What does this fold into?
Amino acid sequence: MPVLTKSKTADRLAQEKHFVAALRYKLDALANAQLKEDRQASKILKSAAKRVKKTKPQSISHLKSEIHLLLSASNIQPHRPRQNVPLATREESWLIRLDWDGKFHQPADTDFSEAYARERQIYMEQLALDDTQMSFPLYQPQAYELHTSPTWLFMRRFQNYANSAKYICEQLSRQNISPETVQKMNFFDFSNVLYNWMKENNRQPFESARSRNIKMFEACYGNEFAEIMELLDYKPEYISRMRQKMRNGNTDPMINFHHNINVSRFKELDEPHKINRFSNMLLTFVQPHHRILHFGNGYEAPRDIVFFGGFDPLYQIRRNPERERQYLQTQKLAAKAIKDAKYSR
Amino acid sequence: MQNTAAKLSKLPDFLAGHPLDSADIILCQRRLKLNNRPSVPADYAAFLHFFNSFSYEGCHLFGISPQRESEFDLLSENALINVPHPEKQLILGFNELDYLLWDALAQNYQTVDKNTFEVLNTIPSCETAILDFFGIND
It folds into this structure.
């Protein structure tokens, strides 16, 4: 980070705040321009009507082009999607989301494959029975050959799912799902199996990619992040609280991750299964920074930025691939050491 | 809704907007109607009395903030997002990948992809939709 005098830093911050305020004003004006005004409101609800933020009436197209110019001036360009790349299917979208945030959503009953739905029904009925009537597992976890499932062959390319193979087999056995059913199972089925495993074991089957990425960001760029936040006038105590949260895999409510290539277009990546990897991420403020990246048909910040804390490059962090590589290497070694220690016990 | 609010208030370090003034919600509903947009569903309006906007871990629910203090004003955000069917779809919040929307015609809540608006999940109840959105499973 360049060393600046105090007055220079203050000037840059004033310019940045001015830019952000201008952008916010343009967005508000655009919202207002697209909404008809309630002329009767001030008669009925005087006090509330007074509170409505007023902006100068301007044409929608003029405002859109002004926002576009502001963004282009800061090197934020419209996203140009690669042509003829198919969009993610609904099943793929679910798969990527579960890997991303680790949140299990309940699929509709019609989402399950016929074969799995049938056997799941029996399991559900069994759950209602008392323990004495419960049947023993008919199949051992080793009986399941996940690689016979085309869905699994795609799933296993995601580290989280690959690491959950053991849990899936355990749960399939517990649910008495026949090994032949595996090859017909779709992602909704697998996610349901993982959800049931989580319920039975009362713990998450894996750490979400989001949580891993925020930890990686803190480890690789935490110091630069703190310096930028300080330049942006955040209190040191607040910054250290934010960093502590990051170390635990959590984000502050005003900070978000942005996927450079979005999930629906994940096939644009040379290695689509890396959609949730750190290399496709950008950390940014929710408003207006993340908001603006989804403006219109989407905008892109330069790919080498890993933290977009402002429109002035002073408030941005550039990627350091070597540092990221070293971090991943250390994590790999640590994971191996834990695994070895487990087996040697 | 009280149960949902209680569950949300247990989340660590969430951010919520200023308390809601009932006149603001009436004004918002009038303006939505005037602009041929669906009204804020009654149960979501009830939620707004507990939390007028709510943010936690990359998930944000809109509130009603005519002065844009919270920056998550439902009316302004809906004016800025190009939903495919504005006459029946009202965006209530977003996370890093999706929007949470209310489909007034189908009378249900949906999680849709931010870019394609593909429906990923359909939930009939507001409380379940909110808890599901924040990943709070029963």
User: Anything to note?
Assistant: Chain A touches chain B through 55 residues (CB under 8 Å). The two ends of chain A are 47 Å apart (CA to CA). Residues 104-207 of chain A form one domain.
